[in-house]
Amino acid sequence: MTPLIKVLEIHKSFPTKPEPLHVLKGINIEVLKGEVLAIVGASGAGKSTLLHILGALDRPGSGKVFYDNLDIFQQREDDLARFRNRMIGFVFQFHHLLPEFTALENTIMPALIYGMKWDNALTKANELLKEVSLGDRINHRPGELSGGEQQRVAVARALILDPSVVLADEPTGNLDTKTGDAVFELLKSLNKERGITFVIVTHNERLAYNCNKIAKMVDGRIESIENRKG
Hints:
6-stranded mixed β-sheet
């Protein structure tokens, strides 16, 4: 099967004194379409840095990232930005919802920025919020929602443009165990029902063991890859 994402020899360093900090040291990994990949490892292992490069939020120092055989970092900046906005959804630990906007408005925002017609975006946002069990909370602002509900809004927002992959950085890390489990089950159900590919950075190895594949990072490298039924 052709991988959706293929990473070849990714290196990434950051300038520090007295010498550069080498965060990624030759990462090679493939993500298949429809797969749920968990990336685990201690703090400082390079997990979030790798996720940012997979999401084209940052560039590698060297190496290549392919999406369906497209070498994404060979694109011009404006083309890369459009690719990122259209093809990749993001879910972060702290939601990054706009506090002055409702759940519906937060969900619809990426679609409007992309240029989707208002009526189409509105219909889709409503459908997504219902799908994540927030159909009765669409007019609530983030401050009126629980942590789990805010994360569900973030998931709906990530899906508004039908991305090929959703990248999630500690999506349950700021939630209690029960709420975090519910959010994780939501991601799994979306994967099963919609065939969405997920790459999830997590410290929660219990949740990681319910994914299709687990990549363990140690000191900027992939130490092991374990295939599971998920």
